[in-house]
Please model this.
Amino acid sequence: MHDIYIKKHHRGHPWIFSNEIKSEGKIEPGEIVRIHHGKKFLGRGFYNPHSLIAVRRFAKADQEFDQHFLDGMIDRALARRKAWSKENSFRLVHSESDGLPGLIIDKYENNYVIQINCYGMDKRRDMIIKSLTRMEPGFIYEKSDAQLRKLEGLEAVQKLHYGNLTNPVAIKQAGILITVDVETGQKTGFFFDLADIRKMVRVISRGRTVLDLFCYTGAFSLYAASGGALSVTAVDSSRSAIELAKVNSRNAGTESIRFICADVFEFLRNHEHQYDIIIADPPSFTKSKRSLTSARRGYGEINRQAMKHLAKDGILVTTSCSYHMNEQDFLEILRKAALDAGVSMEITDRATQSPDHPVLLNMPESHYLKCIFLRRTG
Model:
């Protein structure tokens, strides 16, 4: 066991950056280290000398990362989810927010898809698989293809570790049957973090015309249709996503949804119809501070165009899923978009990621999803 000493202590934050380390010995990537600030012991974490985030702390105590510890952390995460939701599919482990840095586990009924994004957790893959097999799953599938692995010096991994892969897999969300492609879909296949926002959309959709932009496999559209929307039009540039969205629509008995495979920006520029509700849930336009300028242009353009297609008293539900775009920046982009579109808007509601994606108070990076509900008043 190695000890490291740091120059600066960010109280409560689980990350220690490489330029904050005062002294260290020769430590292999993925090893566990004891962390000290002067004479104060700060806990244990995974070490990686090749990453900007040199240490990811998993415990404030002098705690071994053994099978018993991992099992307990996963069990605790499951108990927290069960306490607030009756759903059987959700994000089971949300990395640092559940005390397991670099590990994501999404639960699809009784199947599990994992992502491992840090070196220390990657070295303990067998422990993760062993812990999940206690649940007697149908399958455990790994989809560790995130850009974060490159920053850690890791290659992509996509592999079945346990059981028989049934893909796509069917889940239920708020009583709606949804088919998920865990192999080729985005992230692990489904975005559980939008669950609460979808429920809000379902409530306001009754008797209204709805446009779902960047619809992916149609979850927002399904919620709007099940909420009694007068009509739903859904647009995405991915042909495979649109085809799966059509399957979801048929399975849910909401075949009145009109799906269009097109570039969303081009669709809005060449489209004249107005809608009572528009959902703009684009992918993250920025993964770093360096690309914030282009991201602002992207968010500005999509929201300006959406506002122009919003009927009087219509509602725009717009999101940003990038941590680097904070809420004040996002609101400023929306203000400028409204001015450029020549419309008046008021904020009617705000929302964020669902509770299965917990936010650590001392880790701002864990709060990434912002959603603003805007009504067109003029």
User: Anything to note?
Assistant: The chain has a mean pLDDT of 94.
